[in-house]
Every structure is written in structure tokens, then in C-alpha cells.
Amino acid sequence: MEIEHSHLSINGLNLHIAQIGKDELGTVVFLHGFPEIWYSWRHQMIAVAKAGYKAIAPDWRGYGLSDQPQDPENAAWEDLVSDMLGILDALSISKAFLVAKDFGAFPAYQFALIYPDRTCGVISIGIPFAPMRGSYDSLPEGFYIKRWREIGRAEADFGRFDAKRVVRTIYILFSKNEIPIAPEGKEIIDLADSSTPLPEWFTEEDLSTYASLYEKNGFTYPLQMPYRALGKQYDVPDPKIQVPVLLIQGEKDYVFKFPGIYEIIKEGIMQKYVPNLEITYMPEGNHFAQEQFPDQVNQLIIRFLKGHHVNA
């Protein structure tokens, strides 16, 4: 059983799709974040395929082997939701489970809100759902999202190095328990150098795979989506997710320290908008829990899939 690759023409772009397995029990769509591509779900795709599901992992538009939009500066969240719908339609999939992390969780939640009849359930790794907009005003100027939202600054920072060094540094920083913040006079990519060791679960071969795929499109669109598109999500009139949702929360994920995230998860705010919610905590889990602890995450995903039938 091997992962197969193809392209689909969706909304005027050729989107790269990785697939494995047969849909005996249903289909699972995996949605990556930054600085990831389909490859970040490699462990989970094989596991769910062996469990009887079809696994699909696209590269978002502008990422990996998918086409770059002609106007990346106009990146919009609704484009990602439309791409998801187009993929399901092109593959004649009436209903699917969505597994997402990082910014991929936003279109997954939006899709479940707008198309509940096409969604079996949502699994999010590290990103809770709440309709209110988050604020980063309390974080210092060197906070990485503030830096990357500044047009031209990240481009100049990243442009000093090749794609491999950029991805390496971001993986190292995002694997830590602390929010990446650069001191005055330094840029984000200066926070680690080539001598800083990779996380033990992330190999040089993994890094080379990511780097080779970022060499195709670079970082032009990824800086727009998600960073410069944050706060531009479109509103849904009744933001209550009716499908089952599993939140897998790594307690050493730096995002857990973002303003408001702890309260959304721990104080029941997410539960108000997601009545059928299950939360599982991974005490040592970081931002890349699905790569850090693949067996544990695979078990959690498959248990959720088995507990919620496609036609339920």
C-alpha cells in the first residue's frame, strides 16, 4: 500500500493531491498548516488507510506541488473552503471526515459550518474553535506573527537563506514550548542557526522533502495565507458546529500560550459553539504532535473515526 499522487483542476488551479486506501469505511481529508505540506500527514494517512478508510491530503493552493494563485496578495479563506468542496466533488465524495492542524483548522471548521451535510466530523490538532477574533496586542513587537504580517519584512528575512534553512528554523522554533519572539535587532530566522539540532522525531530526510517542495512556490503565498489573511475570516450567521469534533491539544504546543486560547479550551467557551465536543490532552505534545507522537495521534484519530459512522 503506497501513497499515490495526482493533480486536480480546482477553481482554475492544479492542486496536488496525495491519496492512499479504499473508502470501505469512509474518506478522511487531511489539511496541513505552515510550514507544512501534505507530507506532514504521512504517518496518519497510512494508518487510516490500513484501518479501512481512504486518506486524502492536498497541498493547499500556493503550497507544495499545487499551483500558485496569480494574485497571492488577495488570499482569502473562502478560497480554501471552495477548494475543499471542489476536491470532494471532483473525487465524487459525498461526505468526509476532516483532520486539520495549524491554520488548516480554520477552513475545516468553516467547511463544517457551511456544509454540515458533507462533513462526518472534524479533528483539530491544537486549534480550538471560537467565532470571536483573537488579539495579539498584548504580545511584543517581535512576536513572529506581527513580524510576518508586515509586508516585505519576512520576505527580506527569509530571502537571506535557502528554503531548507528557513523550514529548518521554523520547525525548530515551532517545536518549542515558548512563543517565537525576536528581540530588537534580530529577525525570526536569526533565532536558530544551522548548528541548532532538529527535533529528534524530524530527520534530515524529512527536512529535505519539505525544502524541495517549498522551492517550487517559495513563501509568497504562505506569508499571505495564513498570516496576512488573519482576521479576514468571513462570518457565518449561526456559528455553531453541529458535527462531532475532537480537539487533540498538545500541552507543550506554544499556541496554547496565545492570548485567549487557554480560556477557550479550559473554560468551556468552545463547548458553547461545539455541542458535540471531545477534548484529549497530550501532556508532552508540541505543535507537531502528529509527527512527534504519530502512533498516539493515529490511535486517537482512528478511535474517533470508528465512533462516528459516515452515514450517522
Automatic annotation (TrEMBL):
Pfam family, one: Abhydrolase_1
Domain AB hydrolase-1: residue ranges: 27-131
Taxonomic superkingdom: Eukaryota
Keywords: Hydrolase
Gene3D superfamilies xrefs: alpha/beta hydrolase
Span of the signal peptide: none
GO MF annotations, alphabetized: hydrolase activity
Coiled-coil parts of chain: none
Acyltransferase keyword on record: no
Cited SUPFAM superfamilies: alpha/beta-Hydrolases
Zinc is among the record's keywords: no
Family designation: Belongs to the AB hydrolase superfamily. Epoxide hydrolase family.
PANTHER family given in the database record: EPOXIDE HYDROLASE (PTHR43329)
Protein name as it appears in the record: AB hydrolase-1 domain-containing protein
Source organism of the structure: Rhynchospora pubera
